[in-house]
Design a protein that fits this description.
Length: 334
Amino acid sequence: MAGRNLVVATGTGSGKTESFLLPVLNALAAEHARGTLGPGVRALLLYPMNALANDQMKRLRRLLAETPHITFGRYTGDTKDDPHRAADTFEQLNPGEPRLPNELFSRREMRATPPHILLTNYAMLEYLLLRPQDMDLFEGEHAGGWRFIVVDEAHVYDGARGAELAMLLGRLKDRVGRGRDIQAIATSATVGAEENPAAVTAFAQALFDVPFHWDADTLPAIEAGATGYLLKDAPPEDLAAAVRTAAAGRTTLAPTVADRLMYRLRMPGTALTRRETEVLALVAEGLSNQAVGRRLHLTEGTVKSHLARVYAKLGVDSRTAAVATVTDLGLIRR
């Protein structure tokens, strides 16, 4: 996930939970290996109803049964204040199931040593942010490690409810996000990503008030010959530098865009675009970059950009090798 804010919008049973839970657990394991994993919330998992939070607790018990250094707890209206009452309630609801030492059952325990993974619901989060007795979850000696905010079933927060959650998340970030980057993740099986991914991205951005980026906006622009690509939240000085770089005939990319492009280019079996194939076919005819540009109505710099991407995709370093490779693959005829 590389620290990006994400919307995970796949069907039920497709692994949405694993897509955010495994990176969270990986970050906790890395912190433990560094010897810096003390008490304190690292990830908030926010659910629209208790039933979903309860299901997630069952999954965490299975995953963390052999990982006692990673703590977790569910703080909802059903959570008891007294540790003994909370333990009795757990045994009544889960007969025969062993209690894990890393599961915090009571409010009192979570206030004293906040769990690394905190599960709650939308309504309870508002109470937690207001009540003085719960301040240690967000402030104090154990409050400096917040890294993830996950909103499950994000599609239920539409209209007025969505506006309320956006304000609630804003208050939460004001409390725990000062001076640090907190990764925002939304999940939904029915948010409509296939029909209108750009609208889904805009919805998530409005909900969390942080940038979300849709890759489909990036690659076509570069494939069409753009010499640079910045994200819309780029600071003015980066924009000015990018303009000067482009004017000098060089390429500039936002770091996250460059990372995504490199990932795509390193994927096995990456296909050439239609334009890249056209450029390479003309190169195979013996045309110079300038002549290819005239034939396709492109600048010479754009032709060079296309060829550079072709070389990276094919793992070659020359025009001759690129033409030989695509000829062998049957992509062009000579």
